[in-house]
Amino acid sequence: MASGAPTAPPRLHALDGLRAIAALSVVAYHAWLYTLPRVSSATRATTPDYLWHELRLGLVLFFVLSGFLLYGPWVRSALTGSARPSTRGYAIRRAGRILPAYWLAIVGSVVLLWPHDATPGVRLPEAQNLWLFAVFAQNFSQDTLLTLNPPTWTLAVEATFYLALPVLGVLAVRGRRLGVIAAPVLFLLAGTAYNYALSDQAHLAPTVTKILPAFAPYFALGMLAAVAAHGRTLRRTAMWGLLALGCVLVAGDAWWAADSATRGSHDQSLRIWRDTPAAAGFALVLLAVGAAAHAPRVLSTRVMSWLGERSYGIYLWHVPLLLVLRAEGLLPLFTLGALAVILPLTLLVAAASWRWVERPAQDWSRRVAARGSARRAAAALASAGASAGP
């Protein structure tokens, strides 16, 4: 099947609303974490501590969202017979989406944090290893994992998923209706098998638990939600039912993790499944929102759409800003106070990132990808014309 540039569906502002929720929950989690006297996620002494800690699940929502959104074009191609997504165009658009803003945030983190190595929460890598951040390889070294700008470990996982997706997409397109389901199911099973293989090992290097195979089930569930949402329109009752069930699964996962921490248990089942129940819940939420005839209005408000568009900048900058404010003695050392200070500053920086870095880079990458698609289409027409000649 010839490659081409598939027609994308209209942008769903409700999905921007979910991005906003994911970003704000992660900011709140880190506002709690980086105001602790000893910065450690294991420090949970009170009920509010457990509640703040479980806002970490926002990063799971980001992973599921990526699977849902990026697999969508492959689903449409497999199920409708439309042109297969161009791998070149996909790579160009992904690069424009993540690289410029990410590189700027890494440079900004070095500038802001390098003078503050003694501050609680600041962990700096060896200078000679900074290049690993530039190529999303920080998760493969003990020296760089969870250092400098700690949340960027998730972007290293995302970048690896971006590389794996075209392979899964080709499998889906070639297999048509069977393949479009088989690809994410196999991905989910492979990730679960990887976590199972590690589950009976008492002392694992963090580098083996912070790479794509460990999180493959989250992406895979988002991909399956994209399959389920294709061509489907949900009535309001079905939408709210799925939303409720999804929220129950997310809350159940949070309770399970918190209860395990309370009992001091890290049993094998927790190591195998990790936050897969929450990922399944988020997948149901995405199915409900993505296939709804009318998504919940609260997700589509201007404020939520604005925050969702700038969620990448929010995610990239909030921890370096938290840490530098703490280093300068400007951060209230309680969660709500820290949020009141960090949110306006983060939103200002994220808005600047969107206006002067992210949006121009995305516009450029779309133009380059479109020119490549046009050239390939013209070459295909010329070839067809030559073949049909006398």
- Quick one: biggest sheet? 2 strands, parallel
Please indicate the count of domains: 1
Helix content: over 70%
Number of strands: 2
What's the total helix number? Answer: 13
Inertia-based shape: globular
Mean pLDDT: 91
Across the major sheet, the strand order is 1-2
Based on the structure, what is the oligomeric state of the protein chains? single chain
Low-confidence stretches: 1-11, 380-387
What would you call the structural class? mainly alpha
Rounded to an integer in angstroms, the radius of gyration calculated over CA atoms is 22 Å
DSSP strand content = under 5%
Ends apart, CA distance between termini: 26 Å
Order of helices and strands: EHHHEHHHHHHHHHH
Walk me through what this model shows.
This protein has a two-stranded parallel ribbon. The two termini are 26 Å apart. It has one domain. Helices cover 71% and strands 1% of the residues. The chain is mostly helical and 390 residues long.
Salient structural properties:
390 residues; mainly alpha; two-stranded parallel ribbon; 13 helices; globular; disordered N terminus
List the helices and strands and how they pair.
Layout: E1 3-4, H1 13-33, H2 47-53, H3 58-80, E2 84-85, H4 87-113, H5 131-134, H6 152-198, H7 212-229, H8 236-263, H9 268-273, H10 276-291, H11 302-309, H12 311-327, H13 335-387
Parallel strand pairs: 1-2
